[in-house]
Each structure stands twice: as C-alpha cells, then as structure tokens.
Design a protein that fits this description.
This protein is α/β, with parallel strands linked by helices. The chain has 18 helices and 10 strands. The structure holds D-arabinohydroxamic acid and zinc ion. Its EC number is 5.3.1.12.
Length: about 450
C-alpha cells in the first residue's frame, strides 16, 4: 500500500513538474519582446535590395534578405578561415558583388562543410521559420522568394514570427550615411515599429577626431575641454537626442577603457563627467556602455575585423557610484567579465545589465551567463538583445535565445517549486514580461507602449 502510494506521489510530482516546465516554455515563447539593441532600420532609410522591382538605394541602411543574411560579417570572418586570404585575397572578395560573396559563403560554409556554427545555423533557422525548406538547399529558390517580398510588409512578418514588439535602432550620428539621412528628412525615423538610440562612440574613443567633426557640423569646440567646448558639445548631444528622439544614448568602448574617479584626468573620463552624463541626467535618459570591443584588429575583414578584450568592471562600478543620478545599461564582450559585472549590478540599483553581446551570443555562453545572472540578480536584468544587422536575423536570434532562456527558467522554477513554493502561471508570465519588456521600459522611465 505504502509503495503504491509513494509511486502515485512520485508520478504526481513528475506530472506537476512537466506541467510547470510547459508553462514556462509557453510563457517565454509567447511573450512579445522589446529588442533592446539592434542595427536595424525601417525602409525610410533606404534599402540596397528592394525586392519586387522597387527602387533600391545601394547605400541604404535597411538590410534584409538571403544575400544579406549570408554575407553577415560573422560569416565573412568564418569563410576566410576556410578559403584563406592566400587562396582568395580580401580585395578579390570585396570586389565580388553581394550575390557572388553570398554564393562563395554558401558553397564553403554550407555545402562543402556542415553549417554548424551559430551564425550558419541562424540562417537555416530563419529560412525554416519563414516557411522556406532548408532541406532543399535551394539558394536560387530562396532568392526568388525574397525577390517577391515587399520590404515594409516583410518587417511586419519578421516581427510577428520573431515575437518582437518593438525594434530599438542604433543611430550612429558620426556615420555620414546615417547622419545625412536625418538632416535631409527629420521624419526619416518616424516608424512606430522602431525606436531611436543616439550612438556616439568617437566622443569617448577619439575626442580629437570627434571635436574636429563637431566644428565642421557647426559646434565650435576645441580639443581642450574648456567651458565653451563643454557647452557646445552638450548642445550637440541635446540636438541629436531630440532629432533621433533617443530612448537612451550608447557607446561601445574598448577593453582598456578606464574610469578612475571624479578627478580622473583622462579625456574620456572628463568628456563623460562634463559633457555626456550631465546632459543625460538633465534629460533623465540612461546611458548604455557596451565594453570590450577592440576595433579592426584585422581591418581587411571590415565589420568582421573587431576583437574581444577583457574590460574593467571596477571602472563601471566607480561610474555608477560617482553618478548616482544617472542610470546605466551595461554589457561586456568578454565571457570572463560576466560574473563580476553581475556582482556589480548587485551593488548599484542604477546599473542594468543586459544581453549576451556578439561573441558571447552563442548557446553555450547564453546558457552559462543567463543561469549565473538569474542566480545573482533574480528577475532584475535584461537577458538578451538581438544585435541584428539584417532584419531576418530577428527570427533566429530570438528563436535560439528564447529556447535557451526557457531552459534556464524551467530549471530555476523547478528548484523553487521543490521547496513547496509553486509559482503560478500568472507569476511566471509576469516575470517573463519583466525579462522581455518591462525591465527595459521601467529603467527607461517610459510607460509600456
Ligand atoms: O558595437 C556594436 O554595437 C556591435 O554590436 C557591433 O555592431 C558588432 O559589429 C556587431 O554587430 N556585433 O553583433
Ligand atoms: Zn551592436
């Protein structure tokens, strides 16, 4: 009798745990996500591939379709490992058309070797979720399908499939192609599906060059950070926050970025203290620091030529401590920085950790980092952003990450349930909403749209 009762209890508990896991997976799969960081644009910024015979713009910023997917800079870097520069020079590759580059990558990374890297697999997940069958390996057929699509309607389709409710752009004001589009048409960003972010890396990475640009753009600044320079640079940031209607401002910083305190004489620390953070505090906007990218270690690979390096979390902690009236998003590129960064977030409520960025946006590291963050931060972080550069990448980047985040949460809710505290479906969905939307909107201080 007792054995039968125990067996019944065990099977009952197993069924309940299975039901709990299913609830978690449904909640994660169904929750719309506000994508915190992408390099995506609406059609108003032009597109080099207009499909169905529409006017294309070779320097357009809206990238989408199979040839852009295949020539993603992650895959360019990977294909040069297989067909080395000694076999195909960088110049010969870059002289190819986009389609020829895509053919080259398809041949060497998909057909002649199995597409098992995360960036390769992502192309296949995307095709599959768009209803195109990867088993057919029919690049010509995929191209024909994309040719028949309308870019604007394709955005709606991709957002629907990927469960992305809003796309946050990266509006790089020091990029001439983008800046001129804003100056020519102040409504260029008026697409409700997209939110603006002001990105100004050179202000902190290369002040002298940035200052020279500001002078050319009508902001009379000097290389020395005198009062006039500070005022004019602040005006520049205010003008562009307004033009872009920025939700936050952002920079990527090199691994050797350091901030040693309010007396730190470094130019980057002085620009931060005197120019950037006062404007953001005045406008009540957060500042996103993405730290650890050493740019163009191999310039021949162009966007694919950047490298990762170990950053300094203590500098981030000092910034959060010295500027308590500012709010900071932060992500780091090195796997080795993730634990210390999560611990720093435990010390500062004005620090919101986000995403598994770029070289740690891989299943094994997303799992490791997300598990560690839940254990240290509970529900108080933003687990992921897509960093998509090609519209269709939203599909695979969110598909893969949702599965991985669900794996972690299923384990964590099971561990809690084992204590007798059984989270309800509403509580689980509430938590997932925080992870995918409300941690961002609350930290931004904007009402959930
Ligand atoms: O600086 C950044 O925002 C990075 O995400 C770079 O754009 C990088 O090239 C990238 O696309 N990573 O995914
Ligand atoms: Zn990015």
């Amino acid at each position: 009798m007792l054995i039968a009762q125990n067996q019944e209890n065990i099977s009952g508990r197993a069924q309940d745990l299975a039901a709990l896991e299913a609830t978690v997976r449904d909640a994660v799969r169904e929750q719309p996500v506000w994508d915190f960081h992408t390099h995506l644009y609406p059609p108003s910024f032009g597109t080099p591939f207009a499909g169905s015979g529409k006017a294309s713009d070779p320097k357009g910023l809206m990238l989408w379709g199979i040839d852009e997917l295949l020539t993603y800079h992650y895959l360019v870097a990977e294909v040069f490992r297989v067909v080395t520069p000694q076999q195909l020079s960088y110049d010969d590759f870059w002289r190819m058309t986009k389609r020829e580059q895509a053919d080259h990558i398809w041949k060497h990374l998909f057909l002649e070797r199995s597409p098992i890297s995360e960036a390769c697999r992502g192309v296949l997940t995307t095709l599959q979720r768009l209803g195109l069958d990867p088993a057919e390996r029919d690049l010509a057929g995929y191209r024909q399908w994309f040719d028949e699509q309308d870019p604007d309607r394709h955005i709606d389709r991709v957002m629907e499939i990927s469960g992305v409710s809003r796309i946050t752009m990266t509006n790089a004001v020091f990029d001439d192609n983008e800046r001129l589009r804003w100056l020519e048409n102040r409504h260029v960003g008026d697409d409700p599906r997209f939110a603006g972010v002001l990105r100004f890396d050179p202000l902190l990475r290369d002040w002298p060059a940035a200052a020279a640009q500001l002078v050319r753009w009508g902001y009379p600044v000097n290389k020395t950070l005198d009062d006039q320079t500070v005022e004019q640079a602040r005006k520049f940031i205010r003008d562009w926050i307004d033009r872009v209607q920025a939700l936050y401002c952002a920079v990527s910083l090199p691994p050797d970025f350091r901030y040693e305190g309010l007396e730190d004489p470094r130019t980057s620390s002085t620009v931060l203290r005197k120019i950037i953070l006062p404007v953001l505090a005045e406008r009540d906007l957060p500042f996103a620091m993405m730290i650890g990218s050493r740019l163009r270690v191999n310039p021949e690979l162009r966007d694919g030529g950047d490298m990762v390096g170990l950053a300094d979390v203590a500098s981030v902690a000092r910034i959060c401590s010295d500027f308590p009236h500012n709010r900071f998003f932060c992500t780091m590129l090195a796997r080795e920085n993730q634990h210390e960064l999560a611990v720093a977030a435990r010390k500062f409520g004005n620090l919101m950790v986000f995403g598994c960025w770029w070289f740690v946006n891989n299943p094994s590291l997303i799992d490791e980092i997300t598990r560690m963050r839940v254990e240290l931060l509970g529900t108080s972080f933003i687990p992921q952003h897509s960093d998509a550069r090609v519209l269709d990448q939203l599909i695979y980047k969110w598909d893969h990450s949702r599965d991985l985040i669900a794996n972690v949460l299923a384990d964590k809710y099971r561990d809690v349930a084992a204590t007798g505290w059984r989270p309800s479906e509403n509580e689980i969905r509430r938590d997932v909403r925080l992870f995918f939307h409300e941690n961002m909107s609350n930290f931004l201080g904007t009402p959930t749209p």
